[in-house]
Amino acid sequence: MILELDCGNSFIKWRVIHVADAAIESGGIVDSDQALVAEVAARASVRLTGCRIVSVRSEEETDALCALIAQAFAVQARVAHPAQEMAGVRNGYDDYQRLGMDRWLAALGAFHLAKGACLVIDLGTAAKADFVAADGEHLGGYICPGMPLMRSQLRTHTRRIRYDDASAERALASLAPGRSTVEAVERGCVLMLQGFAHTQLEQARALWGGDFTVFLTGGDAPLVREAVPQARVVPDLVFVGLAMACPLD
Ligand SMILES: Nc1ncnc2c1ncn2[C@@H]1O[C@H](COP(=O)(O)OP(=O)(O)O)[C@@H](O)[C@H]1O
Ligand SMILES: CC(C)(COP(=O)(O)O)[C@@H](O)C(=O)NCCC(=O)O
Ligand SMILES: [K+]
């Protein structure tokens, strides 16, 4: 079995898949290396034979995670690295090594699934959009603060915006104009995310008319899915690209 890890800025997404058919054995989301090792050790019933990782964290943090995995599960992790070109997609950055690896792998996965022009909207710590043309040329993209960053900026840089996580969750039962601080902030930030998604769709339409596929991924994808009904919601899009960039057998 193979352990797959997607290390974002806030969370590590993990799953264990079977080598033969890539069927998913188990998976989860954790907020630390230690929690990851504990969860995988508790739930992955069969011994791991390999591990592949995509990380947007520092090299030191990624190396430390690899060392921890080697120690806990006796497997050498393979870390996905940037490429100028892969699986028919050409990296559109001036310096290809600067493109976030999660964005690159999501673009690879999306082009593989769409087999044509595609727009990837990935809503995590940051909100990202990437454009891949029908011929595989990655045209670049956009990075904005995602839901956790918008929320925490308001909480940190104002004196009178304070609320707890439970009331934040309750506030999102509707998107009507807020009648309390928590409703005003939470709903306002969701509308910002939806506005981001709509603007990206407009860009894609200007580029390609109607002939493209929209993918929606990242932990906060559910907050915009109804606002972008034409999008294919693929929560594991980064893992699709990771399997392409780091084949293991
Ligand atoms: N089970 C979960 N645990 C934590 N966050 C979650 C979970 N499900 C959805 N989320 C949302 O996902 C967001 C993080 O998205 P994610 O794509 O994991 O970010 P990153 O890759 O930057 O770490 C959080 O802001 C949170 O709202
Ligand atoms: C933009 C990101 C911070 C997004 O990280 P995430 O929201 O997935 O945690 C990451 O893709 C990154 O560090 N990119 C490098 C800069 C760039 O892509 O231009
Ligand atoms: K991510």
Secondary-structure map with pairings?
Blueprint (H helix, E strand, L loop, with lengths): L1 E6 L4 E6 L6 E7 L2 H11 L6 E6 L3 H15 L3 E3 L5 E2 L2 E2 L10 H14 L3 E6 L2 E7 L5 E8 L1 H11 L7 H7 L9 H28 L4 E5 L14 E2 L3 H9 L4
Parallel strand pairs: 1-4, 4-5, 8-11, 11-12
Antiparallel strand pairs: 1-2, 2-3, 6-7, 8-9, 9-10
The structure holds adenosine-5'-diphosphate, ligand PAZ and potassium ion.
Function: Catalyzes the phosphorylation of pantothenate (Pan), the first step in CoA biosynthesis.
Keywords: ATP-binding, Coenzyme A biosynthesis, Cytoplasm, Kinase, Metal-binding, Nucleotide-binding, Potassium, Transferase
InterPro entries: ATPase_NBD, Type_III_PanK
Task: Please give a quick description of this structure.
It is found in: Cytoplasm. The chain is α/β, with parallel strands linked by helices and 249 residues long. It is built from seven helices and twelve strands.
Q: Can you tell me about this structure?
A:
With 249 residues, the protein is an alpha/beta fold. The protein has 7 helices and 12 strands. It has helices at 33-43, 59-73, 101-114, 147-157, 165-171, 181-208, 237-245, and strands at residues 2-7, 12-17, 24-30, 50-55, 77-79, 85-86, 89-90, 118-123, 126-132, 138-145, 213-217, 232-233. The strands form 3 sheets. It has a 5-stranded mixed sheet with strand order 3-2-1-4-5, with helices on both faces. Strand 6 (85-86) and strand 7 form a beta hairpin. The longest helix has 28 residues, at 181-208. The radius of gyration is 19 Å and the shape is globular. 35% of the residues are buried. The model has no long low-confidence stretch (mean pLDDT 97).
